[in-house]
Design goal:
The chain is built from seven helices and four strands. It has 139 residues and is an alpha+beta fold. The protein has a four-stranded antiparallel sheet with strand order 2-3-1-4. The radius of gyration is 14 Å and the shape is globular. Bound molecules: adenosine-5'-triphosphate and magnesium ion. The site of adenosine-5'-triphosphate has 10 residues, from strand 4.
Length: 139
């Protein structure tokens, strides 16, 4: 089933000029980048985006990290895009990520882990709507 998922290329990656290399891994996986924009997240956007982690000990650090440098927000489209992109990203902790995954290739640590991808189709819809107008997604 063709689906859409939401992706963020995080500050540790934009800072190291890895946008193109990460996009190459995404495209080689068969996923299509159907919308993309480079932004600086506001503190409020980062807090809202990671609201589910508000009670976790790393929440403050996570929000500070996400606003520390520009990020690239993206909509990816393809067969089973949500699960497929989770596979392409690899485990949250790069030490546990499989060979060839974005996090194995590029991530620095469990916090500075280079990319975000939605964890369900419902959350993908919510996250896409937070950053994109439907008219700006060209599938
Ligand atoms: P994401 O939601 O960014 O795609 P994920 O779903 O693999 O990643 P989550 O459990 O949702 O992981 O955590 C969200 C983000 O919070 C992680 O990607 C990471 O940047 C940060 N994070 C998670 N666990 C830790 C931790 N123990 N210490 C520091 N940061 C963490
Ligand atoms: Mg997550």
């Amino acid at each position: 089933m063709t689906e859409r998922t939401f992706s963020i290329i995080k500050p540790d990656a934009t800072k190291r000029n890895l946008t193109g290399k990460i996009n190459a891994v995404i495209e080689e996986s068969g996923l299509r980048i159907v919308a993309q924009r480079r932004i600086r997240m506001t503190q409020e956007e980062a807090e809202d985006f990671y609201d589910v982690h508000r009670e976790r000990p790393f929440y403050g650090e996570l929000v500070e990290f996400m606003i520390s440098e520009p990020v690239v927000v993206q909509v990816l489209q393809g067969d089973n895009a949500v699960a497929r992109y989770r596979e392409v990203m690899g485990a949250t902790n790069p030490a546990q990520a499989a060979d060839g995954t974005i996090r194995k290739l590029f991530a620095l640590s469990v916090g500075e882990n280079s990319v975000h991808g939605s964890d369900s189709v419902d959350n993908a819809k919510i996250e896409i709507a937070q950053f994109f107008d439907e008219a700006d997604i060209v599938g």
